[in-house]
Amino acid sequence: MRILDGGLVTTVQDTGRYGHYHIGMPPSGAMDQFAHKVGNWLVGNDESDATLEMTYMGAEIEFEEDIVFAVTGADMDPSLEDEPIPTWTAVQAEAGDTLSFGFATEGARAYLAVAGGIDIEPVMGSRATYTLIGIGGHEGRSLEEGDELPVGESSADTDELLGTPIDETDRPDYSQSEINVVMGLCDYRLTDEGRQRFLDADWNVSDEADRVGYRFEGPDITDMFEEREQPFGAGTDVTNVVDLGYPVGSIQMAGQPIILMRDAVTGGGYVTVGTVVSPERDALAQCRTHSTVDFTAVDVDEALEIRQERDAHLESIQESL
Amino acid sequence: MSEKTITRQELQSPRYEYGGDDWVFVELAEAMSFDANFKAQAITQEIRQNSLEGLVEVAPSNASYLIQFDPSVLHPDELIDELKSLEEEIDVSEYQWEARVFDIPVFYDDPWTHETLMDFRERHQDPDATDLEYSAELNGFDSVEAFIDHHSGAPHMVTMIGFVPGLPFCFQMVPHDEQIEVPKYEQPRTATPSRAIGFGGAFTAIYPVPGAGGYQLYGRTPVEVLDVDQELSAFEDSMVLPNPGDILNFRQIDRDEYDAIRSEVEDGTYQYNYDRVEFETQAFFDDPHGYNEQLLEVLD
């Protein structure tokens, strides 16, 4: 397939690159794993096959061979040869057809899965693009006009794939504003009142919101912390800690809260106060700049339950296909 | 009078923290010490080796460590129980590992980091001094030269890799009263040259790629710590140069040597000067200066 227009930011992504966090390598991979996986299943792929992740404004793509594809995630009004096509369902394209997208009307990231997957040579076990150091995906960067992407062989029966859309009720609601977090990590640094203010506030997604992290705007955080004599090696600011590891999904307090996403910086010297539960990192990936979220504290058992429900939901979708 | 040994730190009891449903973060101490770091390295090495099912990431950090796991295979409380028993079993003073000692040439007070730090004076505690002048004065040195001599006068242990791929955090291998401590910038810079040598808190960092940063800027090395294409011979096994537990010796070089090394690095012909040693914590604790000298002999 050929890229006629790369859209705003379009990258090749998959389920991620693991086992290298200790050398500072974040997992990368699709920001919304739910949409990525369901897209792959719709076209008969494994969930780990590579898809295209498009951000806010989609790409324009020409298929060079007959192919089955599916678009999931944010709604970017896709059309094939200028005819609107449904999302969350497998669609047949013919050689020479052009698939185009507009601006996202709901959500922030759409996924294009093609039968056979995008067949790029994996780097350290993954095809996910990590642009900071230029690895994975297509030349380690966002796609541009003229890029050619190889498509793998599909073993799926095309006729069986077509015409089974994902049920409306199974599609995520991208207007979700409540994000569940497990408070912890270094949250002992917060005063009781600071912690309450953090949880009570409405936080706006700033325009600094990308694959590395989402910066939020809201109340001043500087007086949310306990005063202390700073420990040796931490630095002098009240939000400084001895540089430590940041989980993907963790909330780092660097001037304002930043939630680290799949191209996370893996560590640093700002205090972390909690972690978004894993399924809701997908929801956050669909939150748009200037939207508002509020954080709800859950305990680890509730977090595990949320994950189990998500796993069961994905399993039921996979079985229905 | 100066301390002659590494004073052992009694660690408080570790904080075991859930990171959502799929991470566990363990803070061994709030303050930096060799005890905290060696313990983090020992526990993370042990947990890797005992092949607990469901581990995804195991990452030691300066005075803490981080583990990601698959909760459908491994319950976080089961993992924490395992970590607690390792924590009790491990005696840092008996711990030893194979470390690599690297010669890292540094052009201190170089023109590139100088230009960058001058561009961000308004974000600094002391806008009228350079980062080196500020750090030297704060740590009681008479001159920038004396400060640089101190920073390059004893090797540094890599105590964590992170922030971005290949960025080493290094802790100088000297007694506590000889440790440098410097605040980070009041507001982080939006730019840092690649291969800049920075310092924040008690750590030296080498920035592998250009980007944001909050550490004080002291110099620049001509050698890479990240080689994505693995073209340089020292990167045969990994795109990242040092691992946690390796030892870096910063060596002062001038512009001519910087340029000469840089052109070899760019040609892909540069041969890093490094060798392997068996690092023994107790020997280091007992006589850090003597032990360091012995370690550095492998670079001759």
Which features would summarize this protein structure in a list?
heterodimer, A: 321 residues, alpha+beta, Cyclophilin, 2 domains, seven-stranded mixed β-barrel, five-stranded antiparallel beta sheet, 5 helices, 19 strands, B: 300 residues, Gyrase A, domain 2, four-stranded antiparallel beta sheet, 8 helices, 24% strand, globular
Description:
The complex is a heterodimer of chains A (321) and B (300). Chain A has 321 residues and is of the alpha+beta class. Chain A has 2 domains: 2-170, no CATH class; 178-317, Cyclophilin-like (Cyclophilin, Beta Barrel), CATH 2.40.100. Chain A is 16% helix and 30% strand. Chain A has 5 helices and 19 strands. Chain A has helices at 33-42, 158-161, 192-200, 278-285, 300-320; strands at residues 2-5, 9-13, 51-55, 60-62, 67-75, 79-80, 83-84, 90-93, 98-100, 106-114, 178-183, 203-209, 213-217, 240-245, 250-254, 256-260, 267-270, 272-276, 292-297. In chain A, the strands form 4 sheets. A 7-stranded mixed β-barrel of chain A has the order 11-18-15-16-13-12-19. In chain A, a hairpin with a 3-residue loop joins strand 12 (203-209) and strand 13. Chain A is elongated, with a radius of gyration of 20 Å. The two termini of chain A are 25 Å apart. Chain B is an alpha+beta fold. Chain B has 2 domains: 15-94, Gyrase A, domain 2; 98-299, Cyclophilin (Beta Barrel). In chain B, 28% of the residues lie in helices and 24% in strands. Chain B contains 8 helices and 12 strands. Chain B has helices spanning 34-49, 76-89, 111-119, 131-138, 144-151, 255-267, 281-286, 288-296; strands at residues 15-19, 23-27, 55-60, 64-69, 96-108, 156-161, 168-172, 196-200, 203-206, 216-220, 247-252, 274-280. In chain B, the strands form 2 sheets. Chain B has a 7-stranded mixed beta barrel, surrounded by 4 helices. In chain B, strands 1-2-4-3 form a 4-stranded antiparallel β-sheet, covered by helices on one side. In chain B, helix 1 (34-49) packs across helix 2 and helix 4 crosses helix 5 (144-151). Classes of the chains: A alpha+beta (321), B alpha+beta (300). At the A-B interface, strand 14, strand 17, strand 18 and helix 5 of A face strand 1, strand 2, strand 3 and strand 4 of B.
